Amino acid sequence: MKQLTLRKPDDWHVHLRDGESLNFVVPATARQFARAIVMPNLTPPVTTVEHALAYRERILAATDPKLGFEPLMTLYLTDVTDPDTVRQAKASPYVHAVKYYPAGATTNSESGVTKIDNVMGVLETMAEVDLPLLVHGEVTDHGVDIFDREKVFIHDILEPVLQRIPDLRVVFEHITTRDAVEFVTNSNARIGATITPQHLLFDRNDIFKGGIRPHYYCLPILKRSQHRAALLEAATSGNPKFFLGTDSAPHSQASKESSCGCAGIYSAHSAIELYAKVFEAADALDQLEAFASLNGPNFYGLKLNTETITLARETWQLPKELPFTGDDKLIPLLADDTLDWKLVTNHG
Fold first, then answer.
1. What distance in Å separates the CA atoms of residue 51 and residue 43, rounded to the nearest whole number?
2. Residue 147: pLDDT over 60
3. Are strands 322-323 and 329-330 parallel, antiparallel or unpaired?
4. Which tens digits make up the pLDDT trace of 123-146?
5. Does the pLDDT of residue 347 top 80, yes or no?
6. Strands (DSSP E) found in the chain
């Protein structure tokens, strides 16, 4: 196969940051994806529809309008979010979900939920109006091993919530374990999951090859190879519950390579090519369109994109670094490595 044409894909989990950095990261997502679910963990967080609409305008200002890119906005769930805010979000054509961060779980999550009981009323309203809840599925108890935090979250948080509110629509974002794959697979049709390129490509050994490699550090952290195998099987299975979400999260080289490096992997520069690498290695290129272009919009109840993109079999080298804000640099996933598929045409 020399070319691969797909219905234009969407990214159902991306971090675009704010301010000057938008000009450097938004074009990378817009060049290959028609839409993207945009995370609300700014400083301060996006907690109201008014905040979300203003953020949307800043994103669009950083985007070439010819690409037709559509940011799908989300709100940040806090202990004091109220049901009226949920109803306002549902009424807006631009807000598509609410994001649940356990307080302290990851970047800019300090304003997140401290105790799930604090937001049960809000979650009941979300189920009533059918507004999806996006979850960062980890507990933050320091007594729980970092490699077990997703598994414990399922047992201690997610299962009890869904027992109490079975109609809640949930996207279990950036799943990393066989436990999560089995949970999503065995749940009802209102439960879906996104899978990142890094969790399909790597396991936890890759963080420590030749020393600590900070550009492989993300949260949830990479897991054992047996979990990566389960994710790969799920992504390439054609199961409509699993769909593309890069969790692309830009941090400057300096902040990644510091004494307390930030968690996050920047993959937007070559996201669809990275997924093509994964699917080809699994002899499953025929399943890439479902994972990248069909399953996500079907889960969210949105129309499928009518445009297409074309990937060509072409070996090319990823840059060592990319420009970022000021004098900072951005290091992409697989920097200076080669890929065998390249996006050559965007029929947007």
1. 12
2. yes
3. antiparallel
4. 999 999 999 999 999 999 999 999
5. no
6. 3-7, 11-14, 35-38, 70-76, 95-100, 133-135, 170-172, 191-195, 242-244, 308-317, 322-323, 329-330, 338-347
Among 130, 247, 327, 336, the one annotated catalytic: 247
The contacts of residue 197 (CB under 8 Å, 6+ apart) are 246, 267, 271, 274, 275, 278, 333
pLDDT at 348: 53
Give me the residue label for tokens 């920097």.
335
The DSSP code for 102 is B
| Owner of token pair 């109840």 | 301
Which of 47, 52, 24, 41 minimizes the C-alpha distance to 107? 41
pLDDT above 70 (res 232)? yes
Phi, psi of 191 (to 5 degrees): -115, 120
By the 8 A CB rule, do 169 and 198 touch?
A: no
Measured from the Cβ of residue 229, the count of other Cβ atoms closer than 10 Å reads: 14
SS3 37: strand
- Indicate the SS3 state at residue 336: coil
Tokens of 73: 């906005």
| Residue in 270, 271, 193, 264 with CA at minimum distance from that of residue 11 | 271
Mean pLDDT, range 33-48, rounded to an integer: 97
- Angle 257-100-303 from CA coordinates, rounded to 5°: 100
Cα–Cα distance measured from residue 158 to residue 230, given in angstroms and rounded to the nearest whole number: 20
Q: Nearest 5 degrees, angle CA 157-CA 159-CA 160?
A: 70
Residue 135 pairs in a beta bridge with: 100, 172
What pLDDT, on the 0 to 100 scale, is given for residue 328? Answer: 96
Q: Nearest CA to 267 among 333, 216, 221? A: 333
Omega before 220 within 30 of 0, i.e. cis: yes
Indicate if 247 belongs to the active site: yes
Q: What's the whole-number mean pLDDT along residues 186-213?
A: 97
pLDDT in tens, 73-85: 999 999 999 999 9
Mean pLDDT of the chain: 97
8 A C-beta contact, residue 134 and residue 99: yes
